[in-house]
Amino acid sequence: MEARNDPARENAFRQYRLNQWVSQSTRWMPMHLYTACTGTEFAEPDRLRELVARRPAWGGLDLASKLDLTAWCLVVPDGIDGHVSSLWRFWLPEAGVDFLDEHTDHRVSQWVEQGWITTTPGEVIDYEVIEADIAADCAALRVADINYDEWSGEPVRQRLERVTRVDMYPVPQTFRGMTHGMTELMTLTRSRSWSHHGNPVAAFCFDSVEVRHPPGEPDLIRPDKPQRGKTGKRIDAVPTAAMAVSGWRLRGQKPKKSGQMVVMG
């Protein structure tokens, strides 16, 4: 049962305690636990945003490649179902749909039609669309701050901070940079303390993600990014959720300066 509920822990135990050879990367999320965190499902992505409008939130952003899937996650502590809600946006260049369709039984084009993925014209992602959508979310919710992949691009960060007036914090996509958020996210999953509300793209990412541990340090963890040109696997929902959760856990329970909101997680 322990192994079924935590594949990463089982992999580390075998490698470091039993001296058994295991693959460098291992499946991370027990999907039966993830499914148990569905909560109230929404057929329309915007409906959830309407229900959590004006509530405090923390963001996680990974712009990824200009040619591929990009993700943005909001964690809302005072969410639907009486605990934390997570909601995502995903963007993809039109030219990237066919490749991912071939590797996902045409699910990606279905998610585009249903509104779970926003496509931008051409072969590269349109950052203006992304910035406008994030700015709209920051206006609709009380976004306290945003954790982001430090490789996401300085010009985009500068424009987002200027438009949203929300502080942004770089997070290295390293073992030490990602361990806190990944650990907190798994804790929420195992305690059934959050809801992903049935987002199909997020489920696809969580079902695909594998993780790595550095030699001799089984408590450190980071997502293992797939080879995007060779596989249809995508994990973008996972690091963005981990970064958003980390921001909330690190700063959401600290008193704000005078004149700012105070939120207790």
Structure characterization notes:
The protein is an alpha/beta fold and 265 residues long. The chain has a single domain (23-251), classed as Nucleotidyltransferase, domain 5, CATH 3.30.420.240. Helix content is 40%, strand content 20%. The protein has eleven helices and ten strands. The protein has helices at 2-5, 7-16, 31-36, 45-51, 97-103, 107-114, 127-140, 154-164, 175-190, 200-208, 237-251, and strands at 25-27, 56-62, 70-76, 84-93, 117-120, 142-149, 167-171, 194-195, 210-212, 222-224. The strands form two sheets. Strands 2, 3, 4, 5, 6, 7 and 8 form a seven-stranded mixed beta sheet that branches. A three-stranded antiparallel beta sheet has the order 1-9-10. A hairpin with a 7-residue loop joins strand 2 and strand 3. Helix 7 runs parallel beside helix 8 (154-164) and helix 9 packs across helix 11. The longest helix has 16 residues, at 175-190.
